[in-house]
Structure formats: C-alpha cells, structure tokens
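Researcher: Next sequence.
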Amino acid sequence: MSRPNLLFFHVDNISTGDFGCYGGGITIGAQTPNVDRFAAEGLKLTSYNVEAQCTPTRSALMTGRHSVRTGCTSVMPGNGLVAWEVTIAQLLQDAGYRNAILGKWHCGKEEGRYATDHGFDYWYGIGDTWDVAMWPDDKFFQRTDFEPEYVLESTGPGHLEQIKVIDRDVRRDIDVEFMDKAEAWMSDAVEADEPFFVYFNHSNMHFPTLPGRSSTAPPTAAPWPTASRWSMPTSSACSTTSTTSVSATTPSWCSPATTAATPPSTPPTTRAPPAPGAAATSRPTRATTAPSASPSGPDTSAPEHPTRCSTSSTGIPH
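Model: Next structure:
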C-alpha cells in the first residue's frame, strides 16, 4: 500500500464563529471562501476541544497525550517536550517520511526540545509566540538590555541558527516564506519518491495581525491579512501524489477542524448582483454552501489537487 503524503495546516487563535461555514466569515467582516470550501466538500466537524494555551494543545497534538502527562501545562518558559516523549513526526520518520515544520513550534526551544529533536528533519519558524514581533519597536523594551527574539532554522537534532530578528516588518509577510519553503520541501520529496509530512503553522491569525505587503485587496475591503483566504499551496508534489490536507486550529475556545477534498471539475460560480433598480427575487446563497467571491474577485486560489476526503480533530486526544 502506498503511503499518503500529509500536509497539516495549524492555525492560531481561531474560534468557531470566525469561518463562513459556521456562520461567521463575511458576516463579521472577513470572507473565508477556501475554508468554507473545505467544509462543503469534506466532512465538517462540530465538536473540537483544546486547552487555553498553545504549548498544552500543541504538545497534545504531537504526542496524543494530555498535557498533565507530558508536563506541558503552560506556555511559560521551561515548558516543553522531554526527550522520551514520542511524537507523530518520530513515528512517521521511522516509516520513511520526510518531515518539515514551518512556523511556530512552541513545544520547547532548549536543546533537546527542538522540533528537529522530535522527528522533524527541518524547522523554519519560531520557538514561542508571535507576540515578540512587537518588542523591537516598543519604547519600554528599547530601554532594556534584553535581546529580541529570532526566526530560527534547524536542519537536524541539536542544530539551531538564528536567522533574523522577529519584528513587525518580518512578521508581516513571513507566511509567504513558509509557503515557499513548504512547496520546495514537497517537490523535493516527490522527486526523491519519498512520502512527506509538512506541519504548516499559519501566523496571521495571531496578533499582531498585519496585512501583507502583497495584499491585493481593494481599499474598500476590510484590511485583514491575505492569509485568511489562503488554501493549500499547489505544487508538483500535490499533482503527482496522493495528498491528504488537514486544517486545524488552536484557539482558547471550542472550535472546528475541516479538511480539503477533491474539487469539482468546473470552477465555482457566483450569483451576479441585480441590476440597479431591480427587485431581488431571492436571498443570496450563503458562504456555508459554496465559496463566495473574495473582495478582489472570484476565489481563484482554491485547492486543486488534494485527492482524498477525510477529517481530523486535533486538540486534546483521548
């Protein structure tokens, strides 16, 4: 049996009501057509439980164990996975997978606790929280002798490099860097005929929420980061192999998880607006049943290649 490729989207600070498929989306100011499409074409879950902080939730996702068993009960410094905890990445690595994590790890950044100490072959991202992007230009921080936090890169156990200071400017478009590296990782794995596991951690839902410089939204659109409309990056990896794409969240409340599924053979259509002065004949179709047009035009970034419809609930495994 062939081994499926795994692309896992993990999103910070998302609540049930933020997505259109759960009644949010455009009704609260930001359309989510790609996530709505995942829900419409896959299986939408309605019960998803996590802990109130990142480290307890992320450690549970990695190990399948409650935080009270791993000791990862808080985001405070010193918390993280110990050497003897077994992660999903380690199990996949033993099965011949190439594993990469892009974005926030938050399961320990001391030596022995890096993502690459726990089954990942490559890590590019941050050790803790995105809050630190606000430090460098803070007047109170500037009066101290504290060192700012850095974007980190690791290529193996015990290896860690500080790439650049995390500030608002870096934070603004770092998800684009993550996407480029994820696509390259998937393509390289496909060329080598090896399965991959990509753990992709979006940053733009965590404050500071900043619109990317590459945003194409018109001035009249809500200035939310463009990442809220992103979907699975398409690449030769997705077009030549069977790829399961899963999205999940780590909020402080109960929240859903949805997955990508095979898209229709024809692009979605949108209802044309009525002519000036014409009476409306019916209520417009809600985003819960079909992806709606984004402020900059029809949604053209919907996933094209995932080949399997499945779901996964993360958070606190039982």
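Model: Confidence is low (pLDDT under 50) at residues 219-242, 249-318. The longest helix spans residues 168-191.
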